[in-house]
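Class prep. Sample record?

___
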Amino acid sequence: MIRRGLVLLMLLVCCRAPAATTAQTPTSTPSAAAWAFDTPRTLGRDSGVIRGLAVALDDHGYAHTSYLRASEFMAEASHSALIVQGVTQAGDRYERRLWQGEPSAGPTAITARSGRIIVAATLAGTVRLWESRDNGVTWNDMAIPVAASVAQLAILSDGRAVLVLLTRTGMQFHLTIATETSAGSGTWQQANPLSTSPSAVLAVWQRDDVRTDQTGLPLLVVAQGKAGGIQLAITQNGTRWQPQTIASATPHALALSAVGDRMVVVHEQYGVRVLWLASSTVHEDWQVTRLATPSSVIVEANPLLHDPQTDMVLLLTTCRFPDRPFGSYRAQLCLSRVRVDELHQASAWERQWAEPWTPIAMAQPHTAQAGAVVVTHGMQAHVAWVGQFIPSDFLHINATQAGFVTTSEAMATTVRIPALARLDGS
C-alpha cells in the first residue's frame, strides 16, 4: 500500500533582472472587439520564471493554482519555490509557499473538492504531496515521498483521493493508480491496469457531476501515451479499471474532455504539426481523425469545450506571431469553433486555422508563451497561461542578457462557455 505521496513535478524559473518588453497588439479583424472577456489577472507576487502551471476548480467554481518558480540565468536555474494560490470558500484569496530549495525538473498537479485541496510536485526524483482540508487556509505535508517521474491527481465525489503515478525503469514507464480506501485515510489500494510504455505523456479526466449530459460517462479516465497511440484505464468506482487502446500516433501531449455523451481525446503527434482527435461513448469503437495544422501557428492539445445549447465545440490554443527579430514571437490565445456534427470533419477544423487569426483580447500579449491550461466546471471555463518576456530593445543590448535573462508571469481568466460559443453572432 502506498502511503501519502505521489505527484507530478513542475519546474519554474526566475530571472535576476526581470526584463520588461513592450507588448505589441496583433493585427485583427473588425470583429475582434467581440472577443473581450474578463480582464486577465496576474497570479502570484514573486518575480522569476514559471514552470509547471496546473489548475483545478472546486465545487464552487473557484480556481486553485500550483506552479514552480525559480531564478534563471544562462539556462541555469536556482532558488526554486512551489507556490499554491487560489480562493477560499469564504471568497478570500490565499497564496502559500509549500516548498523552497534547489530546482529539479518536472511539473506540478492539483485537485480540489469539498474543501479538500491536494498539490503534488516531483522534487529530486520523488513525488511529494501537500494537503489542505479547509479550502486553502492551512496546509500540511502528506509525508513519505515516493520515487516517481510523473503524477496526476483527482478527488472522487465520496472524498477519496486518486493518485496516478508513472515510475521509470530504463526506457519504460510503469503506471500505478492508487485510490484511498476511505476519504483522508492515508492508506491506498493499488492497481496497475496498463502495460508499460515508453511514453511519459499522462492525463486524467473526471466526470463533471454538474453536467447532466455526462451521466452516462465513466467516473474517471486515465490516459497514457504509447508507441502509435493512447492507452486508457477507465473506472466507474475508482478501484476496478478497464483498459482500452486507441490507435493514432505517438503523442507529444494529450488532453481529455467530453462532448455530450462522448469522451474525446486530443493529442499532438510527436515531432509533427498534427493534432489527432478520437471520440467514443467508451462502449463502442473509437472514431479517430487526423487534423493537419498550418506551419505558421502552433495548435496545442487542450480539452474541448462543449456548449449543449448551441451544439458548438470549441478549442482554445496559443497563436504565435513571428514578427520579431531572431525567431522571437508575440503570443496570444485564439479560439476555434465547429459544430458537433463536424467534430470529425478535418476540413471544418482546418478552416478555423486559416490566416489571419483573430486573437482573443482577454490574453495579455507576451514575447513568448506556454500553452494555455484549460479546466471546466459546468458552463464555466477557467483559462491560465504563462507568458515570457525578453527585452524589447533586443538589438541594442548585450546579446547574452537578451537571450538568457527573462521573466515570466502567470495569467488567468474565467469565461462562460456559451459566451465563447456565440462570438461574432454565431
Observations:
- The domain at 30-425 is CATH 2.120.10.10 (Neuraminidase).
- The chain is about 5% helix and 45% strand.
- The helical segments are 346-352, 399-404, 417-421.
